Amino acid sequence: MAVTLRAVATAVPPTILVQPEVRDVFAAQPGLNRLAQRIIGTAFDVSGIETRHTVLDELSWEAHPDEPVFFDIDSGELRLPGTKVRNEIYAVEATRLYLEAARAALAACTGVEASDITHVVTVSCTGFYAPGPDFMLARDLGLNPGVERYHLGFMGCYASIPALRIAKQLCEADASAVVLVVSAELCTLHLRSSNDPDTIVASSLFADGAAAGIVSTRPAEAGEKAFDLDGFATRVTPVGEGDMAWKIGDHGFEMVLSNAIPAIIDDHITGALEPLFATEPTLAAALAADTASQAVEHWAIHPGGRSILDKVESRLVLTEAQLVPARETLRDFGNMSSATVLFVLKNILESHAASDGDRVAAMAFGPGLTVESALLTVRA
Questions:
Q1: Which of 270, 286, 283, 281 lies closest to 235, judged by CA?
Q2: Which tens digit of pLDDT belongs to each residue from 201-235?
Q3: What CA–CA distance (Å, rounded) separates 46 from 261?
Q4: Beta carbons within 8 Å of 165's beta carbon, 6+ residues apart
Q5: Closest-CA residue to 23 (of 172, 163, 173, 200)
Q6: I want to staple 188 with a disulfide (CB 3.0 to 4.6 A). Which of 54, 63, 99, 252 is the partner?
Q7: What is the pLDDT of residues 88-117, one digit of tens each?
Q8: Domain Chalcone/stilbene synthase C-terminal: where (predicted)?
């Protein structure tokens, strides 16, 4: 019984951040030491990002609120609102993005109506509220009052892969299940000026966005591209627990993102893929022989940053073309935490290069240091 991911849809807020402009704003903040200014210039310029999106319209050059909360355009100074203020914005704006992405997925999924949804799985690590986004989706989409709801919170950038795994398990347990999976992240709510290198790197990378998809045993319609969800794996690296972390501070959430992460991924990515490929001898042999790029046509790598993609490409001997979907996602949208890997999957699905029967390996990295992976097959 095949379980299929259909109608992958995305949504972003309208305010666009242009990377050089944001760099100049951060570099001009008062209180920065010389080292921080150098790190800002380097981090922003080598990020591989050209544009990002944010729910904070104050960060656009057009907005001039009477009482700025995050950014005073007249003085050019970034403000430092408390966590409560940031989270109140999250509750409003995240709900909008959850709904936009979910409605787009439903509209794109021929033969599936809102009334068919049996389960909702929501994902986010950039805010909290209750009743939460799972409740808001059920209410505002007019889902069945008995729809089952689950929320994966504060897991970090890899969380959409466990969400898809849960959806697959629900469908395997009940062939009539139709699962709506939605991730929404408002990372820019937690940006701030700082001399701390981790905070500076985070400010150069993170962005806002949402993505959704529908998982069920119902086959895709004729002419529709979709993914069969073949298998999943989790691996925690033996080092790196303190190198990637996400904590709640008085002025928003605080990211620990050390410069050791690319090297850790380089050392352990092959081992992280071993349990994913173990059930298919051909793939396992290809991984051992460093020819996985020949056995798997497409690679949906979470673009945590350009250096991470560079390490993955080099260690797995991938072609430049195989990293295009991840690099294009990073270039146009930045790192949207858990939603990002779904953007990459959508890019693959919409590309002319994706053909029926092609294999896809998806990977995302998060606190722990945890590597979540999935194996998929294109259906077209």
A1: 270
A2: 999 999 999 999 999 999 999 889 999 999 999 99
A3: 16
A4: 229, 232, 374
A5: 200
A6: 54
A7: 999 999 999 999 999 999 999 999 999 999
A8: 235-376
